Amino acid sequence: MIVAGEPSGDLHASHVARQLKALCPDITLFGMGGDQMEAASVKLDLHIRDSAVMGFADVITVLPMFLRKQAYLKRRIREEHPDVLLLVDFAEFNMPLAKFARRQGVSVVYYIPPKAWAWRANRARKLAKWANVVAAIFPFEAEFYRNSGANAEFVGHPLVDFAQTPLSAQAARERLHICETADDLEAPVIGLMPGSRRSEIRHILPVMLKAAANIAQVYPKAHWILPLAPGISRDLIAKHQQELCRGWVTQPLQLPSIKIVENQTYQAMRASTLLLVTSGTATLEATCIGAPMIILFCTAAFNWHIIKALTPLNRSGLPNLIAGRDIVPELLQTELTPTALTALALDFLKHPQKRETQREALQAVYAQLGTAGAAERTAELVFLNIRQA
């Protein structure tokens, strides 16, 4: 049984599912996931549509649905008694399933475990009791879980396998049909990545667009590109653009032309002189590509107050958390304003050495992500726990 709750977890779980099928073609795979898992021959009892949420306020609104899904999956665990339960990320939903399965005598493998090393360290101690093995994606994460009593194995980060492109920056720009003429060669390319959840788009995209209007006054020949995240439509982006422009009645906001692309995220990252990117998995993808960036985060005020009460962290970006220092500038919550973002972006655009220094630091973070083959190593752990069951 495999349980993933968000698009990124669905993707990573699908890679493991394919490896499981390669190791044992007649294996039965079922559980909760999305289109990627279904394409990898996992029979979905529940689909993850509408499962992706951000923050406590969003969780409260969907809590009844989550509890119903949890109850259903617990019933399936009790009835089917799978040889192994493979849980992928989605900690608040999956940890109770780990506890239930262990009490039912089902082996539990937790792939991409909770970031207990960053906040709420007690989750590591709980998972040490409930999981047969924790498949950690950072070496320091495996050590942290071992120190908490867990059987933890470092399998490497799944992004190492596919967050890459063979294209040079210029080749990526040509592929995306930007900077195609000699006059364009010196013009910066600025990538906008407002997130993969509607709530992120709502809170962060308007600030990005206002800053873009400001930056365009200084760099009128700059190129703007927005790679769509899975589940986010062009119509949603256009809706926010239109609403923003309508709100400026006395002096209409002059937004630059933004090229929206689909299924070309890594090419867009490679093409960009600078990325303005929402905190999350995309920041680690940009790390793999080596794209200079500014990390942004904003959520509902209610969510933010709870986050600040639960964790003393003063940084949210994965590259910074892994490095243990601020190698990428962050604008969090009240710090994220069009004025602040404009000033920071212009500083990076005007000083190439700052971008190069950051790129070198990102390379050091990338080196900590391990080698390719995370899905294969995780699949092997799953089979090892079948034999031990």
Task: Return the average pLDDT rounded to an integer.
Answer: 90
- The total strand number stands at 13
| Strand coverage percent | 5-15%
Largest beta-sheet characterization: 7 strands, parallel
In what order do the strands lie side by side in the largest sheet?
A: 3-2-1-4-5-6-7
The unreliable regions are none
Q: Count the helices. How many?
A: 17
Helix content: 40-55%
Provide the succession of SSEs: EHEHEHEHEHEHEHHEHEHEHEHEHHEHHH
| Cα-based radius of gyration, to the nearest Å | 22 Å
SSE class: alpha/beta
**How far do the termini sit from each other?**
14 Å
- Tell me, what's the shape? globular
What is the structure about, briefly put?
The protein is built from 17 helices and 13 strands. The protein has 389 residues and is an alpha/beta fold.
Tell me the layout of helices and strands.
Blueprint: E1 2-4, H1 7-23, E2 30-33, H2 35-39, E3 43-47, H3 55-80, E4 84-88, H4 91-103, E5 107-111, H5 122-130, E6 133-136, H6 139-147, E7 152-154, H7 159-162, H8 169-175, E8 189-193, H9 198-218, E9 223-227, H10 234-247, E10 258-261, H11 265-271, E11 274-278, H12 281-289, E12 293-297, H13 301-310, H14 318-323, E13 330-332, H15 338-350, H16 352-366, H17 374-388
Parallel strand pairs: 1-2, 1-4, 2-3, 4-5, 5-6, 6-7, 8-9, 8-11, 9-10, 11-12, 12-13
Helix pairs in contact: 1-17, 3-4, 8-11, 9-10, 9-15
Overview of this structure, please?
- The protein is α/β, with parallel strands linked by helices and 389 residues long.
- Helix content is 51%, strand content 14%.
- It contains 17 helices and 13 strands.
- The protein has helices at residues 7-23, 35-39, 55-80, 91-103, 122-130, 139-147, 159-162, 169-175, 198-218, 234-247, 265-271, 281-289, 301-310, 318-323, 338-350, 352-366, 374-388, and strands spanning 2-4, 30-33, 43-47, 84-88, 107-111, 133-136, 152-154, 189-193, 223-227, 258-261, 274-278, 293-297, 330-332.
- The strands form two sheets. Strands 3-2-1-4-5-6-7 form a seven-stranded parallel sheet, with helices on both faces. Strands 10-9-8-11-12-13 form a six-stranded parallel sheet, with helices on both faces.
- Strand 6 (133-136), helix 6 and strand 7 (152-154) form a beta-alpha-beta unit.
- Helix 9 (198-218) packs across helix 15 (338-350).
- It is globular, with a radius of gyration of 22 Å.
